[in-house]
Amino acid sequence: MTSIISPTSKEKFALAAETAAVSRGYWTTVWTRLVRDPVSVGCAVVLLLMVLIAVFAPLLAPYDPSQGTMLKRLSPIGTEGHWLGTDELGRDMLSRLMHGGQMSLMMGLLPVFIAFAIGTSLGLIAGFFGGWINSLIMRTTDVFFAFPAVLLAIAISGALGAGFVNAIISLTLVFIPPIARVAESVTTSVRNLDFVEAARASGAGNFTIIRVHVLGNVLGPVFIYATSLVSVCMILAAGLSFLGLGVRPPTPEWGLMLNTLRQSIYIQPWISVLPGLMIFITSLCFNLLSDGLRSAMDIKR
Amino acid sequence: MSADKLIDVRNLNVTFKGEEGPVYAVSDVSFDLAAGETLALLGESGCGKSVTMKSLMRLHPAHKTRIEGQINIDGVDLLSMRPAALSAMRGKTVSMVFQEPMLAFDPVYTVGDQIIESVMRHEGFSRADARKRALEMLERVRIPSAAKRLDAYPHEMSGGMRQRAMIALALACKPKILLADEPTTALDATVQIQVLLLLKELQRELGMSMIFVTHDVGVAIEVADRTAVMYAGRIIEEGPVDDVLSNPWHPYTQGLLGATVHPGMDRKEALSAIPGSPPQLTRQITECAFAPRCSYRTDECLKPMPAAYQADSRAVRCIHALAEV
Fold first, then answer.
1. What is the DSSP letter of A213?
2. Of the candidates A7, A25, A203, which has its C-beta nearest B87's C-beta?
3. Cβ-based contacts of A220 with chain B (< 8 Å)
């Protein structure tokens, strides 16, 4: 009888060979796959550079972003000393773009991050408990879906009044419902899987199951979704600033710069386009990185 | 009920509140299990085997299920237990091995982590001690290079190895009762027998009782002391496994054996199928549920069923068997 149970020498050999090939963690595998994708790596490098430049702008920028001379208004790109030209008040464009990254990146990331935390929790609770709790949470978030995102952001911002903090709050509110909805649908599908029942059968309570087993499986897909929202958020934030509902002048911010340079578009079209180009590159990179992350995490099980 | 019974189930009824009315999944099921004993719940798909098993741990969602009757586990009334006591009992007194080892492990954590979680929960061990116990268990279920496997993810293991790991998880807290829900069904035939023998051996070593759900007559003969044959949510025949399967009393058990390859059968004999299909359980069936498919059927069969007929530590629910014996 024992000969049947204990593996034969041939089996042992095969098993040992199998063992040697395994035992790389999930996240290690995801990381390896992500690093092998040139597009993702490229985007990550660009974004990292943007963040570093924005953070160290005070040290790197050649000029003060709010000091300008009327004599040098709207110098073209390539002017001596001002490689990216100057804006309508004669301020150095390069310095302003570098400093502007601080606000723009923050307004793109912060609302999504807060909404990720709140939306995931809401979706998790709604999806796990179901019933009237689900109806209460999900029908409330449904109200927000009645309005287009841009309109909602403008409406909330307008009601709260202009300013950086209010813009963050309004953008967060805009992103909670879609994140909650994704989290809820993933939770609902995870909740009915065998391993949740298996965890319950080995003595795990509701809290442990939500915290360990449901969250562990929901976080990945929701995180991917959230990264794809960063670009939308940046564009919305730029839109708010463009309308004067976000950051106030003279603070440098890409959306606001786009607005103030709008009148100069016939005089120096290329300079007017620069802040838009920055927004475009950043949001494109976030989108491509999010795509890369999704395919890296999609490991066949 | 006698104190030496680890499990004592009396008149268990499980009803699911479906969207199109109730489903009477388990009706009037009674059985018991002594310490160290193995009971095989035998029956085809959808006959209520797994539902009965899950009721023993109260795993059915409470708001969609009605459980009636009496379930005593290790002297405690299961149906009146509070949630906290219930989760302290699950995995400690009673443990379960699932049918699909791939689905029963959480894909985002290592196998070791999942065993450690359970050991820390029930034994109050530190993480390091729990890890030692997990390693010991993986060695005990004969997973090669267990130390490495502890940090492996479920998808990195083969089916047979995953099921061994599942058994290690179920036995990590030394339960008194192991519920095995078709643990070998999803495995290759060659791996099946290894896992079966492993389970039997561990049962002897740990002195556990075991309930083994299967639709495979051969598996039941291999592992069980006693067997209970289920049909349409009720136990129709029960007794020592050798007696029941060598001399079945109930027409359904006879039909089941006629439809399976089993030791001692005549090689020239063709396998026979039971005509028809099991009844829908959306109606409360009071008569013999097998009557529509039964070749011995008389008008008597359509009247409400009498209680099970008991003789020689066997029980059967069929009025004809009762007349015959």
1. I
2. A203
3. 108
